[in-house]
Design goal:
Layout lengths: L2 H6 L5 E6 L1 H7 L2 E6 L4 H11 L15 E2 L2 H29 L5 H11 L7 H11 L21 H12 L4 H13 L2 H10 L11 H34 L5 H7 L10 H11 L10 H24 L4 H13 L6 H12 L33
Parallel strand pairs: 2-3
Antiparallel strand pairs: 1-2
């Protein structure tokens, strides 16, 4: 849609992302408007009037996002992060239940306690409520729900956009794939007979492992949001949007599905450094990751040893380990690409942007492939 053409016709187009579900519809959602900024003074009183208000300061969870489709894009990333949050919480639940044997009463107590700390959020709160909910016959509703997750597509769109922009939004992508894997219920039941699960043996400190799971959940959540904001930054650079990342975090504090205490820390990080390349570079989040790292590693390692799937805990940790390393094995990949396809490579002893080709076999000559990046 050409917003400029609409303006010539006297139409100021606004595309608005909205999140909040049933509760947002009743009490005010998070509203993310974008489009023609000339329209903002006109619609601002209405949209901010109906938006949710943050408990901390009463500010409306609605502000101008940016030109063009910026509002809908930010809403899409919100939903992608939502996919990640839900999968991470589900992995924590699965570990607590399958490894530690926690019943639903214990799970309700654990999640209620977690909701009092750094993990305070709408999704943790409703998960605690789900664990305590009983059917008319007194049995748990959760235990009657088929383990096949649906999806409407926004997580997939986020992952596709990340691939298009070359941004490693690995956690959201794994959350999408986890839902896809859950949909293969009939096949999973067949394969379970071929590769039966070995009984899980846990002989450690139960209280400590619960704390380790909390730390793994918290650290992975930091990675998920860091990746989501990386993606918005890349999209803004490509589309010439002037996104205010601190303001976006504020818009998500109430009304929307991912609302949480955590978002205030993101706001503070961008207030301190508006051009922050990645949340992991902020002092607060760097320190939080370091504090959670040991427990996070213990959880992922134990889950791998026992055959318990933790795709988002694991990919979050893998991203962290890759992102913090100055040297990765991609030099071999480049050598392989040049060997079989003359795709060229850069050298560490030459300026960036200068490409080279090696005649690896002695028969390939000096002809090279066109150099380009996806």
């Amino acid at each position: 849609m050409d917003i400029g053409c609409l303006k010539v016709q006297g139409i100021l187009y606004v595309g608005t992302g909205i999140s909040g579900g049933e509760e947002g519809a009743r009490h005010g959602p998070s509203i993310m408007p974008g489009g023609n900024k000339d329209a903002w003074p006109i619609v601002k009183p209405v949209l901010q009037g109906i938006a949710a208000k943050a408990e901390e300061d009463g500010l409306p969870c609605c502000d101008w996002v940016g030109d063009g489709g910026a509002g809908h894009y930010v809403k899409m990333v919100h939903n992608g992060i939502e996919y990640g949050d839900m999968q991470l919480i589900s992995e924590a639940y699965f570990l607590l239940r399958t490894v530690l044997g926690c019943d639903l009463k214990e799970l309700h107590a654990i999640f209620t306690e977690w909701n009092k700390g750094v993990l305070n959020s709408y999704l943790i709160e409703i998960s605690a409520g789900i664990f305590g909910y009983r059917d008319a016959d007194g049995t748990a509703v959760l235990d009657k729900i088929l383990d096949v997750a649906g999806q409407k597509g926004t997580g997939k769109w986020t992952a596709i956009s990340a691939l298009d922009l070359g941004i490693p939004v690995t956690l959201i992508a794994e959350a999408v794939f986890a839902r896809c894997l859950s949909a293969l219920k009939d096949e999973r039941l067949q394969v379970e007979k071929i590769f039966p699960c070995v009984p899980i043996k846990f002989s450690g400190d139960k209280k400590q492992f619960i704390e380790d799971i909390r730390q793994a959940l918290y650290a992975s959540k930091i990675i998920s949001y860091a990746q989501g904001f990386m993606l918005m930054r890349a999209a803004a650079e490509e589309r010439k949007w002037n996104l205010n990342y601190g303001s976006i975090a504020l818009m998500w504090r109430a009304g929307c599905i991912i609302r949480s205490r955590f978002l205030n820390d993101i706001k503070k990080a961008y207030e301190k450094k508006p051009d922050l390349p990645n949340l992991l570079m902020a002092d607060f989040f760097g320190k939080e990751i370091v504090k959670a790292e040991k427990g996070w590693r213990r959880v992922v390692a134990f889950a791998a040893e026992q055959g318990v799937p933790t795709p988002c805990f694991s990919t979050g940790l893998s991203f962290f380990d890759g992102y913090r390393r100055g040297i990765l094995p991609a030099n071999l990949i480049q050598a392989q690409r040049d060997f079989f396809g003359a795709h060229t490579y850069e050298r560490i002893d030459q300026p960036r942007g200068k490409f080279f080709h090696t005649n690896w076999t002695g028969a390939g000559g000096n002809v090279t492939s066109t150099s380009y990046n996806v």
